[in-house]
Specification:
The protein is of the alpha/beta class. It has 11 helices and 11 strands.
């Protein structure tokens, strides 16, 4: 029986953004494989999220390995000797530079070439980190990305062979399954515009609020509903900067994908002002 190691060392769904949805589907499929006896699957999950992992996965399949940041990866990597290592999140830490066992096929996921195409969006420290993550891809046997555009940009920037990068297109979740309202948080009774995005620079919440300020001049009845993780006070500070009515902004924070149904259905419109996307799932879902 083949052994598969799923590297979820950096799992933190609110901060992982869309990649956590990809990782969830990949992990559920592999958990099913484990339960059916097709493979022995191990999930290496970082200590921050290991206690919540089973609830997130929604399956008892596979074996959980909680990983502490100071733990030497070679200790558990070499004891497992997996036939395949799957890295469904951004990057290959801590499986990158693992030389103790060379028998595994290493598969890495990378949604886009954002930091390579738009380096001005990142601080110097963050850019150094992200470039190191992109360089890790050169060690993989296969890089999986989400669109032909993303593939072409990764090929442009990195010394990867054509056969080393594969495209697996995304598909939207079936939101008709009657998911609960967004974490039981009250939605505005007035019409609202929806913007689902984490608080990353390329999502341009500053432009969003400038556009909404114009909307509010003619439609003061419209609210703005936000979802996604972001730093505390990020939205309130932007609202103050652009003199926007804070009482018209409903920030729901992180909302699980299965709870997005009511948000999409009840919105008057989706506004999407992102500067860069590998695919842009919210537009498809809307």
């Amino acid at each position: 029986m083949k052994t598969c190691l799923v590297n979820l060392y950096d799992l933190d769904p609110p901060r992982n953004g869309g990649m956590s949805r990809v990782a969830l589907l990949v992990s559920r499929i592999l958990a099913d494989y484990d339960e059916l006896g097709y493979a022995k699957v191990f999930f290496a999950v970082g200590w921050r999220y290991s206690a919540q992992f089973r609830e997130w996965l929604g399956s008892s399949g596979g074996t959980l390995i909680p990983v502490m940041p100071e733990a030497a990866p070679s200790l558990w990597l070499e004891s497992l000797k997996p036939d395949i290592v799957i890295n469904p999140l951004f990057g290959m830490t801590p499986t990158a530079n693992w030389n103790g066992y060379t028998g595994a096929v290493n598969v890495a996921s990378m949604p886009d070439a954002l930091a390579l195409d738009k380096p001005h969006l990142f601080s110097e420290a963050e850019l150094i980190y992200r470039r190191a993550v992109y360089d890790q891809l050169k060690q993989s046997d296969l890089v999986v990305t989400i669109s032909e555009h993303a593939r072409s940009r990764l090929m442009h920037h990195l010394d990867l062979k054509q056969e080393q990068v594969a495209v697996i297109p995304l598909a939207g979740d079936d939101l008709r399954s009657g998911g609960a309202a967004a974490q039981n948080k009250a939605l505005p009774s007035s019409p609202y515009v929806l913007y689902p995005a984490n608080g990353w620079p390329h999502k341009r919440h500053d432009l969003l609020l400038q556009a909404m300020k114009i909307v509010w001049e003619s439609r003061p009845d419209v609210s703005l509903v936000l979802t996604g993780w972001r730093a505390p006070d990020y939205i309130s500070e932007l609202a103050a900067r652009y003199d926007c009515p804070i009482d018209k902004i409903v920030d729901l924070g992180y909302v699980a994908s299965q709870a997005m149904d009511s948000l999409y259905r009840n919105a008057e419109a989706l506004m999407f002002v992102s500067e860069y996307e590998g695919f842009c799932m919210p537009v498809l879902e809307a």
